[in-house]
Amino acid sequence: MRNGAMAVLASLTVLGVGLAVSGGRVNAGPAGPEDVLTQTSTINALLDGAYDGDMRIGDLLERGDVGIGTLRGLDGELVIVDGEAFQVGATGAVRRVGDDETTPFASVTPFDADARTDAPAGLDYPGLQAVLDAMRPSENLFYAVRATGSFRYVHTRSVPKQEKPYPPLAEVTRNQPEFEMHDVEGVVVGFWCPAFVEGVNVPGYHLHFLSEDRTCGGHLLGLTTEDVAVELDYTDDFLLDLPETEEFLGFDVRAGRHEDLEDVEG
Ligand SMILES: [Zn+2]
User: What whole-number percentage of the chain has pLDDT above 90?
Assistant: First the structure.
């Protein structure tokens, strides 16, 4: 595991970066496809129960190899690692997701590390966020996160598949199944989004976990690190793909959903 992670880091060094930090400033390089965060639908639509979506997983995977989201009907947590999509279902079981399945809300990017460090052992989730915060050169970019290695503890949740009429997300997460893993190898992936995305995505960190053996994971609620390599991908392009479903086109956009958001993401 450790050797595998180091091999990945070595190859990333060769690939280069789209953004570079020098003299305390962030310099945007030529925009390439590697710097695009692609998202389907909006967090407010998901909060309001727009769980259908029309983005195929196969199409999503063409836009990146690291990502998070959910599946049609709010059917569990989606975790995209190494270009493969996995579902962590409401029972905690993990399965590969087929290309023809669809997602109502997901974000993905071709991961290309711009900064990396080793996290100290024994860090909790806020501690890991502080490490990531120190690696972010600006509050006004998007960042993809990948933290790979061994964890003393991981706490996650999933969400059960819903039937129509779909209830709002806050109602579903009130009874969310939660999972605890101890001494587990795996990877944390996801995004940090700037405050100005409010209503469109989740401001701050939104991370999912998948174990190395692909048997457990979910939406991250807590962790303790053991031996974890942390990578950050600075992302300065954002592509929003809106669903053309009846439910999205007819959905009543409402502002100020951040209180609901704290309920469902906390
Ligand atoms: Zn999530």
Answer: 79
pLDDT at residue 73, as a whole number: 98
User: Tens digit of pLDDT for each residue in 212-248?
Assistant: 999 999 999 999 999 999 999 999 999 999 999 998 9
Residue 190 CA to ligand 1 centre (angstroms): 9
CA of 14 to the centre of ligand 1 (A): 31
Block residue for tokens 């997701």 = 97
Kindly report the pTM of this predicted structure.
0.87
The first and second tokens of residue 138, run together, are: 């600006």
Using the mean position of ligand 1's atoms as its centre, give its distance from the Cα of residue 208 in Å.
6
Ligand 1 geometric centre to CA of 238 (Å): 19
Return the DSSP state at 34: G
Q: How many angstroms does the Cα of residue 3 sit away from the middle of ligand 1? A: 29
Counting every residue, how long is the chain?
Answer: 266
Count of beta carbons in the 10 Å neighbourhood of residue 22? 7
Residue 161 and residue 164: Cα distance in Å, rounded?
10
